[in-house]
Amino acid sequence: MYDLTIIGAGPAGITAAVYAARKKLNTLVITKNIGGQAALSGEVGNYTGYQFISGPELAKKFEEHLKSFNINLQEGVKTLSIEKTDNFKIKTEKKEFESKTVIIATGRTSRMLNIPGEKKFKNKGITYCATCDAPLFAGKDVAVIGGGNSALDAAIQLINIAKKVYLININDSFQGDEIRLEKVRNSDKVEILNSTETKEIIGHEFVKKIKVVKDSEEKILDVEGVFIEIGSTPSLIPVKAPDSELELNQYKEIVVNEHCETNIPGLFAAGDVTNIPEKQIIVAAGHGCIASLSAFGYLSKTK
Amino acid sequence: MYDLTIIGAGPAGITAAVYAARKKLNTLVITKNIGGQAALSGEVGNYTGYQFISGPELAKKFEEHLKSFNINLQEGVKTLSIEKTDNFKIKTEKKEFESKTVIIATGRTSRMLNIPGEKKFKNKGITYCATCDAPLFAGKDVAVIGGGNSALDAAIQLINIAKKVYLININDSFQGDEIRLEKVRNSDKVEILNSTETKEIIGHEFVKKIKVVKDSEEKILDVEGVFIEIGSTPSLIPVKAPDSELELNQYKEIVVNEHCETNIPGLFAAGDVTNIPEKQIIVAAGHGCIASLSAFGYLSKTK
Question: Is the ipTM of this complex over 0.90?
Answer without folding.
Answer: no
